Each structure stands twice: as structure tokens, then as C-alpha cells.
Amino acid sequence: MPHYPSPHTPHPSRLTPHAFDWNRVDDVLLDMDGTLLDRHFDNFFFEEELPRRYAAKHGLKVEEARERLLAMYRAVEGELDWTDLNYWTKTLDIDVVTLTKELDYLIALHPDSLDFLRHLRAQRKRIYLLTSAHSAAVALTLASTRIDRHVHRIVNALEVGYLKLRPEFWPACQRLLVFDPSRSHWLDDD
């Protein structure tokens, strides 16, 4: 059921920049793709370019290749294979890691991401980037954006053993980073 703000909830455009009490937060946990990064790269890669390459390899129409790939994505959604570029390289017999490097020019931060990260550092918050992205995709993103300079640590789902959307991720991540959930703030586009 959709959640609708109550008539007493201020419209987001009427909130002041200081509406959130950062004094109650020690650790800021941030998603990468879609939160700090624009999703254009991921969307284009998995919905357009990879289907084109798969279609060419198998003599299919692009739409048919896209439908096949979407079914394959759904079959492993929620599992580590879903974001594992090596898994997709083996499964599709296409060098997915190399293909992502060919398109790295599409990787971009949201316009205010660096300002936000600088603000958090000025507030002396510990900043953790939590991602389900494969380590090769993280390395490519860091090379393109240098966001690693603005965070204290990057935690990849493979390191934790679960994707972020799995409930098992959070206790394992908490043990790894030793953060207090009552003094932490999680930001994610999902």
C-alpha cells in the first residue's frame, strides 16, 4: 500500500536544510548506485548495451535478447550472482568486466553528492559506503569518481556474504563495522 504524507507533514520543498538532527548520528551508511551515483550507467549497461552484445553474439533481435537477459537477472535476483560480473561473464560468455570499462565514461555522481560528503566530513561523521556492486564495478566507479577519498570505508556485499537487500546483510555488516544502529543513518535509493 502506498504511503502518503499526512496533511501535517511539511512538503519536502518547505523543509529547511537543518530539519534533520545530525547530532543524533555518528555513522552515515550510504548506498552507492542511485544514491551517490546516477543510475544511467547501470540502466544503460544492463538494459541496452549488454542485450545488444548478447543479441549480436546469438543472432537475436535486441528485444528478444533483452527479454532473455531480464529473465536471467530475475532468476538470481537477491543472490550474490545477481551483481557478480564474473558470474555474468561466465554465464553469457561475454567479458562483462571489460565491457563495463568500455563504458566508464557514463559513470557519474549526482550533482550534489560531493558537497553532501564534504558536509558529513565537516560534521565529523563516519561515512561508510555499502554496496552490492561487484568489486570490479566498485573499482571502476572509484577510478571514475574518486568518491573513496570522501568515505571512511567501502563495504562490498561479497565481503559480507549477502546482498544489502537480504536481512542477513545487516547483522554481518554491523559486526564488521561496529556501528550503533540507534546512532546511524542509512541512505539508499531503494
Query: In CATH, what is the homologous superfamily of the largest domain?
Result: HAD superfamily/HAD-like
Domain module tally: 2
Helix and strand succession? EHHHHHEHEHHE
Spans with pLDDT under 50 lasting ≥5 residues?
1-12
So how many helices?
8
Structural class: alpha/beta
Largest sheet: 4 strands, parallel
Class of the largest domain, according to the CATH hierarchy?
Answer: Alpha Beta
> What share of residues are in beta strands?
5-15%
Helical percentage? 40-55%
Rg from Cα: 19 Å
Q: In the CATH hierarchy, what is the architecture of the largest domain at level 2?
A: 3-Layer(aba) Sandwich
Q: Give the averaged pLDDT, no decimals.
A: 89
Give the overall silhouette.
elongated
> Which fold name corresponds to the CATH topology of the largest domain?
Rossmann fold
- The count of strands amounts to 4
Main sheet: strand order = 3-2-1-4
Distance N terminus to C terminus? 16 Å
Helix and strand arrangement:
Elements: E1 27-30, H1 40-58, H2 62-76, H3 85-92, H4 96-102, H5 113-122, E2 126-131, H6 135-145, E3 153-156, H7 157-160, H8 169-177, E4 184-187
Parallel strand pairs: 1-2, 1-4, 2-3
Helix pairs in contact: 1-2
Structure keywords:
single chain, 190 residues, alpha/beta, Rossmann fold, 2 domains, four-stranded parallel sheet, 8 helices, 4 strands
Concise account of the structure shown:
This protein has 2 domains: 12-38 and 110-187, 3-Layer(aba) Sandwich (Rossmann fold); 40-105, no CATH class. The chain is α/β, with parallel strands linked by helices.
